[in-house]
Automatic annotation (TrEMBL):
Coiled coil: none annotated. GO terms for molecular function: catalytic activity. It holds the Pfam family ECH_1. It comes from the Bacteria. SUPFAM superfamilies: ClpP/crotonase. InterPro entries: ClpP/crotonase-like_dom_sf, Enoyl-CoA_hydra/iso, Enoyl-CoA_hydra_C, Enoyl-CoA_Hydratase/Isomerase. Belongs to the enoyl-CoA hydratase/isomerase family. This is Enoyl-CoA hydratase.
């Protein structure tokens, strides 16, 4: 079944939510953010759901913010927090490209597995902004040296580097083979045990949300309204280098 741009399936205690706007590379539009938040809320209410798998159709897990129909920054913060606070583990299954805001989704998940075709890049600096809001779930979890390199350069990196940085739990030639024992373990765990353990694991991340969400949301809005961001986004849409590139 589908819920707008999110495809929903259920099997043996696990609900799979697949981002399903491949023509837009599953970019974070206002509609997709709303649909995913609603689907996650439904999972949270359903006692039959032991865990959630977040995956995608098409060649991109998520291309970041949809520059033609961007979500409200507060809505994106709420979505990321919903993933972190959901009393059920959320496991990302990544078989394609992840860029910018899509990495926030990945960072909010409890576990992430990736296949060999997955690529990652924090491209914000290249359009004149910063990975502000998505830092809420990411910075508490990532290796500081690795995240400094990839935040500052915007360069693309692969699954092995993502594992070393702490962005991905495990990568393999067959992501579903990696995923299978993880889901088996979650199916064997009690709902109460999973919820309590997840609260332990996410406490520091939620402290970051409580402390920094307002400031980072304001920073994001300020940067996106700047002259450099307008040039960067225009250059991106026109498939050219922005004016500052040497």
């Amino acid at each position: 079944m589908t819920a707008g741009p999110v495809r929903v399936a259920y099997e043996r205690g696990v609900t799979t939510l697949a981002l399903d706007a491949p023509e837009r590379r599953n970019a974070l539009s206002a509609g997709l953010v709303g649909a995913l938040a609603d689907a996650l809320a439904a999972c949270g209410r359903d006692d039959a759901v032991r865990a959630v798998v977040l995956t995608h159709t098409g060649t991109a897990f998520c291309a970041g913010a949809d520059l033609r129909d961007p979500p409200d920054p507060d809505a994106l913060v709420a979505l990321l927090r919903r993933i972190v606070e959901l009393p059920k583990p959320v496991v990302a299954r990544v078989l394609g490209h992840v860029r910018a805001g899509g990495l926030g989704l990945l960072g909010a998940c409890d576990i992430a597995v990736a296949g060999p075709e997955a690529t990652f890049a924090f491209t914000e600096v290249r359009i004149g902004v910063a990975p502000a809001v998505i830092s809420l779930p990411l910075l508490p979890r990532l290796d500081p040296r690795a995240v400094a390199r990839y935040y500052l350069t915007g360069e693309r990196f692969g699954p092995a580097q993502a594992v070393r940085a702490g962005l991905v739990t495990e990568a393999g030639e067959d992501a579903d083979a990696v995923l299978a024992p993880i889901l088996d373990g979650l199916r064997r765990a009690s709902p109460q045990g999973l919820a309590a353990t997840k609260r332990l694991l996410t406490a520091r991340v939620l402290e970051t949300f409580d402390r920094d969400a307002d400031g980072l949301t304001a920073l994001s809005a300020r940067l996106f309204s700047s002259d450099q961001a307008r040039e960067g986004m225009t250059a991106f849409l026109e498939r050219r280098d922005p004016a500052w590139v040497w």
